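Box 3.1 A note on notation
Throughout this textbook, protein chains are presented in two layers. The first layer is the amino acid sequence; the second is a C-alpha coordinate string describing backbone geometry. Keep the layers aligned when reading.
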Amino acid sequence: MSKRNRHHKKTQPISQSPTTDLKVGDCIRVKPGIKDPNYGFDIGDWQGRVTAIETYQPPQLTIMFQWDSLSLKRMPAFAIRRSEEDGLDWTSMGLYPEEVEKAEPRDTQADVDEIVEELSAEHNWDYLGKQGRRIHKVLQEIDEDDELEAFETWQEHLEAHLKLPFEAVVSEFQERGPLRAGDLVKVIDIEGVEDIYGVLVNIKARGNVYVFPLCDLKAANEKSANFTLTDDYAVWFANR
Protein backbone atom coordinates (compact mmCIF):
# COMPACT_ATOMS: atom_id res chain seq x y z
CA MET A 1 0.00 0.00 0.00
CA SER A 2 1.35 3.43 -0.90
CA LYS A 3 1.47 5.91 1.96
CA ARG A 4 1.41 9.66 2.30
CA ASN A 5 3.91 11.59 4.37
CA ARG A 6 2.71 13.11 7.61
CA HIS A 7 2.57 16.86 6.95
CA HIS A 8 1.13 19.67 9.01
CA LYS A 9 -2.57 20.30 8.58
CA LYS A 10 -3.56 23.32 6.49
CA THR A 11 -4.56 25.25 9.60
CA GLN A 12 -0.92 25.59 10.65
CA PRO A 13 0.46 29.16 10.40
CA ILE A 14 2.91 29.94 7.62
CA SER A 15 6.39 30.95 8.77
CA GLN A 16 7.61 34.44 7.97
CA SER A 17 11.22 33.23 7.65
CA PRO A 18 11.24 30.54 4.96
CA THR A 19 14.97 29.80 5.12
CA THR A 20 17.03 27.04 6.69
CA ASP A 21 20.66 26.00 7.08
CA LEU A 22 19.64 22.36 7.17
CA LYS A 23 20.52 20.02 4.33
CA VAL A 24 19.69 16.46 3.34
CA GLY A 25 21.49 14.00 5.62
CA ASP A 26 21.63 16.31 8.65
CA CYS A 27 20.57 14.91 11.99
CA ILE A 28 17.82 17.00 13.59
CA ARG A 29 15.99 17.16 16.92
CA VAL A 30 12.36 18.24 17.36
CA LYS A 31 12.16 21.21 19.71
CA PRO A 32 10.44 20.74 23.10
CA GLY A 33 6.69 21.18 23.16
CA ILE A 34 6.06 20.17 19.54
CA LYS A 35 3.15 17.75 19.03
CA ASP A 36 2.57 15.17 16.34
CA PRO A 37 0.49 17.14 13.78
CA ASN A 38 -1.90 14.25 13.12
CA TYR A 39 -2.43 12.51 16.45
CA GLY A 40 -1.38 15.09 19.04
CA PHE A 41 1.18 13.22 21.15
CA ASP A 42 4.40 14.90 22.30
CA ILE A 43 7.37 14.47 19.94
CA GLY A 44 9.66 17.00 21.63
CA ASP A 45 13.33 15.87 21.67
CA TRP A 46 12.68 13.08 19.15
CA GLN A 47 15.37 12.85 16.45
CA GLY A 48 15.75 11.92 12.81
CA ARG A 49 17.66 12.52 9.57
CA VAL A 50 16.66 15.02 6.92
CA THR A 51 15.54 13.34 3.67
CA ALA A 52 14.25 16.37 1.75
CA ILE A 53 13.52 20.09 2.04
CA GLU A 54 10.31 20.83 0.20
CA THR A 55 7.96 23.72 -0.53
CA TYR A 56 4.28 22.84 -0.18
CA GLN A 57 2.81 26.30 0.47
CA PRO A 58 5.20 28.79 -1.16
CA PRO A 59 7.23 30.31 0.32
CA GLN A 60 6.88 27.92 3.30
CA LEU A 61 9.56 25.24 3.68
CA THR A 62 8.89 21.80 5.10
CA ILE A 63 11.74 19.74 6.53
CA MET A 64 11.13 16.09 5.67
CA PHE A 65 12.99 13.56 7.82
CA GLN A 66 13.07 9.91 8.79
CA TRP A 67 12.86 9.11 12.49
CA ASP A 68 15.93 7.52 14.06
CA SER A 69 15.70 4.12 15.72
CA LEU A 70 15.39 5.48 19.27
CA SER A 71 12.45 7.67 18.30
CA LEU A 72 10.73 4.81 16.47
CA LYS A 73 11.05 2.68 19.61
CA ARG A 74 9.22 5.43 21.53
CA MET A 75 6.40 5.74 19.01
CA PRO A 76 3.03 4.76 20.57
CA ALA A 77 1.49 1.64 19.05
CA PHE A 78 -1.79 3.50 18.50
CA ALA A 79 0.03 6.04 16.30
CA ILE A 80 1.42 3.30 14.07
CA ARG A 81 -2.01 1.64 13.86
CA ARG A 82 -3.73 4.92 13.01
CA SER A 83 -1.06 5.76 10.43
CA GLU A 84 -1.52 2.39 8.75
CA GLU A 85 -5.30 2.84 8.70
CA ASP A 86 -4.99 6.40 7.38
CA GLY A 87 -2.36 5.56 4.77
CA LEU A 88 0.36 7.64 6.42
CA ASP A 89 4.06 6.84 6.68
CA TRP A 90 4.85 6.51 10.40
CA THR A 91 8.60 6.23 9.73
CA SER A 92 8.88 9.85 8.60
CA MET A 93 7.61 13.34 9.39
CA GLY A 94 7.39 16.79 7.88
CA LEU A 95 7.84 19.85 10.15
CA TYR A 96 8.64 23.54 9.71
CA PRO A 97 12.26 24.77 10.08
CA GLU A 98 11.43 26.64 13.29
CA GLU A 99 10.23 23.41 14.91
CA VAL A 100 13.52 21.52 14.57
CA GLU A 101 17.22 22.05 15.23
CA LYS A 102 20.49 20.34 14.35
CA ALA A 103 21.60 17.47 16.59
CA GLU A 104 24.24 14.78 16.84
CA PRO A 105 23.34 11.33 15.47
CA ARG A 106 22.48 8.63 18.01
CA ASP A 107 22.42 5.59 15.76
CA THR A 108 23.10 4.33 12.22
CA GLN A 109 20.86 3.81 9.21
CA ALA A 110 21.24 0.07 9.79
CA ASP A 111 19.68 0.55 13.26
CA VAL A 112 16.76 2.42 11.66
CA ASP A 113 16.24 -0.27 9.02
CA GLU A 114 16.21 -2.98 11.68
CA ILE A 115 13.54 -1.36 13.86
CA VAL A 116 11.42 -0.41 10.82
CA GLU A 117 11.46 -4.05 9.70
CA GLU A 118 10.51 -5.21 13.19
CA LEU A 119 7.65 -2.73 13.62
CA SER A 120 6.40 -3.27 10.06
CA ALA A 121 6.04 -6.99 10.73
CA GLU A 122 4.20 -6.29 13.98
CA HIS A 123 1.80 -3.86 12.32
CA ASN A 124 1.60 -5.55 8.92
CA TRP A 125 -2.20 -5.83 8.93
CA ASP A 126 -3.14 -2.65 10.79
CA TYR A 127 -4.34 -0.95 7.60
CA LEU A 128 -7.38 -3.26 7.77
CA GLY A 129 -8.44 -1.84 11.13
CA LYS A 130 -10.16 -4.28 13.51
CA GLN A 131 -10.02 -7.06 10.95
CA GLY A 132 -6.29 -6.55 10.59
CA ARG A 133 -5.81 -6.82 14.34
CA ARG A 134 -7.72 -10.11 14.37
CA ILE A 135 -5.53 -11.43 11.53
CA HIS A 136 -2.36 -10.35 13.33
CA LYS A 137 -3.52 -12.11 16.50
CA VAL A 138 -3.87 -15.39 14.60
CA LEU A 139 -0.42 -15.15 13.01
CA GLN A 140 1.61 -13.25 15.60
CA GLU A 141 3.71 -16.23 16.66
CA ILE A 142 4.69 -17.45 13.18
CA ASP A 143 6.79 -16.36 10.22
CA GLU A 144 4.29 -15.27 7.56
CA ASP A 145 6.93 -15.77 4.86
CA ASP A 146 6.51 -19.49 5.55
CA GLU A 147 3.14 -19.91 3.85
CA LEU A 148 2.74 -23.56 4.79
CA GLU A 149 3.19 -22.68 8.46
CA ALA A 150 0.71 -19.83 8.05
CA PHE A 151 -1.83 -22.18 6.42
CA GLU A 152 -1.41 -24.71 9.23
CA THR A 153 -1.84 -21.97 11.84
CA TRP A 154 -5.07 -20.87 10.16
CA GLN A 155 -6.23 -24.49 10.06
CA GLU A 156 -5.70 -24.84 13.81
CA HIS A 157 -7.45 -21.53 14.48
CA LEU A 158 -10.43 -22.39 12.30
CA GLU A 159 -10.77 -25.91 13.71
CA ALA A 160 -10.87 -24.39 17.19
CA HIS A 161 -13.44 -21.68 16.42
CA LEU A 162 -15.65 -22.60 13.45
CA LYS A 163 -19.01 -24.13 14.29
CA LEU A 164 -19.44 -27.08 11.93
CA PRO A 165 -21.32 -27.85 9.81
CA PHE A 166 -22.49 -24.52 8.35
CA GLU A 167 -23.92 -23.14 5.13
CA ALA A 168 -21.60 -21.12 2.94
CA VAL A 169 -21.67 -19.30 -0.37
CA VAL A 170 -19.12 -19.69 -3.16
CA SER A 171 -17.70 -16.16 -3.16
CA GLU A 172 -15.15 -16.32 -6.00
CA PHE A 173 -15.34 -16.98 -9.75
CA GLN A 174 -14.65 -20.63 -10.59
CA GLU A 175 -12.92 -21.38 -13.89
CA ARG A 176 -13.53 -25.11 -13.67
CA GLY A 177 -15.66 -27.61 -11.79
CA PRO A 178 -19.38 -27.99 -11.10
CA LEU A 179 -19.73 -25.02 -8.73
CA ARG A 180 -20.21 -21.35 -9.60
CA ALA A 181 -19.99 -18.09 -7.68
CA GLY A 182 -23.14 -17.63 -5.62
CA ASP A 183 -23.84 -21.36 -5.14
CA LEU A 184 -24.96 -22.37 -1.66
CA VAL A 185 -23.04 -25.29 -0.12
CA LYS A 186 -22.66 -26.94 3.29
CA VAL A 187 -19.21 -27.05 4.88
CA ILE A 188 -18.88 -30.40 6.65
CA ASP A 189 -15.37 -30.31 8.10
CA ILE A 190 -11.79 -29.25 7.43
CA GLU A 191 -9.80 -31.56 5.16
CA GLY A 192 -6.30 -30.11 5.63
CA VAL A 193 -3.96 -27.65 3.90
CA GLU A 194 -2.38 -27.45 0.44
CA ASP A 195 0.58 -25.33 -0.59
CA ILE A 196 -1.30 -23.43 -3.31
CA TYR A 197 -4.94 -23.32 -2.23
CA GLY A 198 -4.40 -23.11 1.53
CA VAL A 199 -7.00 -24.52 3.90
CA LEU A 200 -9.22 -27.11 2.22
CA VAL A 201 -12.68 -28.11 3.45
CA ASN A 202 -15.12 -30.88 2.63
CA ILE A 203 -18.38 -29.47 1.31
CA LYS A 204 -21.67 -30.93 0.22
CA ALA A 205 -23.50 -29.47 -2.78
CA ARG A 206 -26.24 -30.92 -4.98
CA GLY A 207 -25.96 -34.26 -3.25
CA ASN A 208 -22.23 -34.61 -3.86
CA VAL A 209 -19.20 -34.12 -1.60
CA TYR A 210 -16.21 -32.08 -2.81
CA VAL A 211 -12.88 -30.90 -1.44
CA PHE A 212 -12.88 -27.12 -1.86
CA PRO A 213 -10.58 -24.19 -0.93
CA LEU A 214 -11.97 -22.27 2.02
CA CYS A 215 -10.61 -18.99 0.58
CA ASP A 216 -13.38 -19.19 -2.05
CA LEU A 217 -16.16 -19.50 0.53
CA LYS A 218 -17.92 -17.26 3.02
CA ALA A 219 -20.41 -18.28 5.66
CA ALA A 220 -23.96 -17.60 4.44
CA ASN A 221 -25.07 -16.02 7.72
CA GLU A 222 -23.37 -12.62 7.71
CA LYS A 223 -24.19 -12.06 11.39
CA SER A 224 -22.48 -15.25 12.55
CA ALA A 225 -19.02 -15.77 14.04
CA ASN A 226 -18.40 -18.18 11.16
CA PHE A 227 -18.80 -15.30 8.69
CA THR A 228 -16.19 -13.23 10.52
CA LEU A 229 -13.77 -16.17 10.62
CA THR A 230 -14.16 -17.13 6.96
CA ASP A 231 -13.99 -13.50 5.82
CA ASP A 232 -10.84 -12.84 7.89
CA TYR A 233 -9.19 -15.88 6.36
CA ALA A 234 -10.26 -14.99 2.80
CA VAL A 235 -9.01 -11.41 3.16
CA TRP A 236 -5.68 -12.63 4.55
CA PHE A 237 -5.37 -15.21 1.74
CA ALA A 238 -6.00 -12.55 -0.93
CA ASN A 239 -3.54 -10.04 0.58
CA ARG A 240 -0.79 -12.29 1.92
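The chain has a mean pLDDT of 91. The domain at 143-239 is CATH 2.30.30.530 (SH3 type barrels.).
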